[in-house]
Amino acid sequence: MKKLISLLLVLVFALTAFACTSKPAEATKYTVAVPNDPTNEARALRLLEANGIIKLSETAGETATKLDIVENPYNVEIVEVEAAQIPSMLKDFDYAVINGNYAAQAGLNVNTDALFREGDDVAKPNILSVKAGNENEPKILALKAALQSQQVVDYLLAHGDLGALSKIANPTDGYDPNLDYDALNGVTITVAASPTPHAILLNEVVKGILAAKGITLEVIEFTDYVQPNNVVEAGEVDANYFQHVPYMNNFNEENGTHIVSVGEVHSEPMGLYGGKQSTLTPFGK
């Protein structure tokens, strides 16, 4: 009997050891940083979905979040981070989806450094915007004409490292033929803008166009996506240039502001960049 019990114990131990050693290893979890503001997080998730990394609910809209993910075959962990901070934290994550302006500001080229990026037809156009009711002020129309000029189109074409694509449908010569520029001589226009490429375009191209008519352009740089709308709403600044329409609409709805678009200028395709990982091998690509 003792021998039988011993044999049974050995068998049980052997089966237990086999079960433990044959248990599948837990899948590796890859971290992917995405912007934490609603519309840009949705864009980032759509980019991941378009490349087969995740799948979103059919009801997910322009403010989709990671809670809308219904399929996650590669076990990615979506980490929501303030958009401006992602480039400096890139090495902390396996991958990161970065807005075009922040990527360019960090020296990343969406065309050569990104593992994949938004299509040119998907990226949302960045706009010049003002407080509702100010759209037709002469100085705003003068700013719009200068910003939607052929000179801006040419500058974007010549500076691909900015990661921006012109979305100006009908470029002007820099001036609105219906304006009395003599009456604008001596006027100052203030604009809140992100550093890259917005402030660059304003300072390098638009400022000179307006200066030729005696108009001073003052560019105030912001590194976040909140204050530019707040200062325009408060009347402290005439206009801003940093956002796309879905972000603006969501901001108005959440904050009770009254910001409106004056016109489209350029788009900045989002891209997926490698951090701890340098290839798409974990995703079978």
Low-pLDDT stretches: 1-26
What is the gyration radius calculated from CA atoms? 26 Å
Report mean pLDDT, rounded to a whole number.
Answer: 90
Q: What's the order of the H and E elements?
A: HEHEEEEHEEHHEHEHEHEHEE
Number of discrete helical segments: 9
Residues in helices, as a percent range: 25-40%
CATH H-tier superfamily of the largest domain: Dipeptide-binding Protein, Domain 3
- Main β-sheet, in a few words? 6 strands, mixed
Count of spatially separate domains: 2
Q: Report the end-to-end length measured between terminal Cα atoms.
A: 59 Å
CATH topology of the largest domain: Dipeptide-binding Protein, domain 3
Describe, in plain words, how this protein is organized in 3D:
This protein has helices at residues 2-22, 38-50, 100-105, 138-147, 150-158, 181-184, 195-211, 227-233, 245-255; strands at 30-35, 55-56, 69-71, 76-81, 95-98, 116-117, 125-131, 165-166, 188-193, 216-221, 239-244, 259-267, 271-274. With 285 residues, it is of the alpha/beta class. It folds into two domains: 30-122 and 271-283, 3-Layer(aba) Sandwich (D-Maltodextrin-Binding Protein, domain 2), CATH 3.40.190; 125-267, Dipeptide-binding Protein, Domain 3 (Dipeptide-binding Protein, domain 3, Roll), CATH 3.10.105. It has a six-stranded mixed β-sheet, with helices on both faces. Strands 4-1-5-13-6 form a five-stranded mixed β-sheet. A two-stranded antiparallel ribbon has the order 2-3. It is elongated. The chain starts with a helix and ends in an 11-residue tail after the last strand.
